[in-house]
Amino acid sequence: MTKIPGLRRRKRKDGEALYWIAADISRQAEGYPTPTIRIHSSDADEIASLCQRYTAELLEWISNDKGTRPKRFDGTLRGLITLYRKSADSSYRDIKPNSRAMYDESLDLLEKTVGDRQLARLSGSDFRRWYKKLREPAPPKKEGDLPGPERIRRAFKAMQLLRITIKFGVTENVPECVRLATILANMRFEAPGAREIFVTFEQSAAIIAKAIEMKRPSIAIAQALQFELTLRQIDVIGAWTIVEDGSKAGIVHLGRRWSGGLLWSEIDADGILRKRTTKTGQKAVHDTNAYPLVSQVLALIAPEKRIGPVIVNETTGLPYRYRNFMQMWRAIATKAGVPKSVWNRDSRAGGVTEGTDAGVDLEAMRHHANHSQVSTTALYSRKTLEKTRSVAAARIAARKTNK
Fold first, then answer.
1. Which of 74, 84, 102, 230 would bridge with 79, disulfide CB 3.0–4.6 Å?
2. How many domains does the chain divide into?
3. Over 70: is that where the pLDDT of 49 sits?
4. Residue 181: its pLDDT value, please?
5. How many angstroms separate the CA atoms of 85 and 208, rounded?
6. CA-based Rg of the chain, rounded to a whole angstrom?
């Protein structure tokens, strides 16, 4: 128990009290809303789980910025990235939460690897060297293992975010950014090929079974909704964004508000799901009873508990943070035998691929996945439920044929 992150014991007259201390986790914990939390439990597993939860929330708070005021610019790339993330007029603030999470992955990578470099000393040769270094295969985890593939996607995304950050610096009249933007405008970096990996039905079913076994119905339900109904991840689990207006309306925790995810109120008594999607604003309409796996996982939640968000972290009692969800999904997928090259976001592509392979009309499949333009969707809006049911029937029939 002494190795549990953040755990500290304090002697009291009536025995010993346990606390989780944010400052014991990170020096950047200053200003954290709950720096000390009393733990009222004597169960070792529960104590460990609580400390892990509190630590994950702290690290999420740190990684998502502690405030909105940028620090004084120090001439480094890290300083420029901080300005880009925190300035009130930055386009970063207009990015949707799911896209912002992907931006942050590359921005964090740049800060970690080259953040200390002074802008005044950078040149094109630096950028070429960075790209080559970032695309190198990940080092083997143990001696004797073969190196993995080159990480072209990782390197390319980092260079794209470097361009965006430098261009922001130009608009803010940051010294050296005009020169660096000109250099980058004359450079090209190899882009990754179109992603071809997708989740298969067998992999999806294995993840669902393993999640149920591990008492994580939230992951089982999310997986079924993404694969079977081809819903986007953000429309299933939602996203947390910074509360800037001071309002406490909705689900608010540690200065962030949850929105965008599926609610139980969006599934009616007949099992018909109707949800306005986040990306396009189109309404997804599905009969959840048309897919046995979806019916199975939704039945894991008792009727009296079907209030608020559908996908809730069993540990926190709140909707998942993006990183927490990805970590939990990956852990379960790995135990289910799904390769690490397969991502949760590949679930939607897997559902679409299964449908087209089953002979589903492409236009109907596009409608099922909400891929068509709003003007086109409007022509079929009265037959939405009929179309999504036909896609479900074709996919289920194909599974029986392939056995």
1. 74
2. 3
3. yes
4. 96
5. 37
6. 24
pLDDT of the residue at 275 = 94
How far apart are the C-alpha atoms of 55 and 45, rounded to whole Å? 15
Q: What is the mean pLDDT of the segment spanning 88-100?
A: 81
| Angstrom distance (rounded) from CA 270 to CA 289 | 8
Instruction: Report the CATH number at residue 210.
Output: 1.10.443.10
Largest CA distance in the chain: 73
Q: What is the DSSP letter of 35?
A: S
The half-sphere exposure of 106 on its side-chain side, counting CA atoms within 13 A, is 22
pLDDT at 379 over 80: no
Q: Each residue of 269-299: pLDDT tens digit?
A: 999 999 998 877 788 999 999 999 999 999 9
The domain of 376 spans 201-402
Indicate the residue type of 367: H
Looking at the chain, the number of H-run helices and the number of E-run strands are 15, 8
For residues 46 and 146, membership in a common domain is answered with no
Both tokens of 276, joined, read: 């306005």
Could you report the per-residue pLDDT of 165-212, keeping only the tens digit for each?
A: 999 999 999 989 999 999 999 999 998 877 778 899 999 999 999 999
Is the CB of residue 35 less than 8 Å from the CB of residue 211? no
Same domain for 160 and 88? yes
- Phi then psi dihedrals of residue 35, to 5 deg: -70, -25
What's the pTM?
Answer: 0.67
In the predicted model, is pLDDT for residue 381 greater than 50? Answer: no
Last residue of a domain, one of 152, 185, 218: 185
CA distances from 356 to 188, 364, 398 (A): 35, 10, 11
Q: Are residues 223 and 318 in the same domain?
A: yes
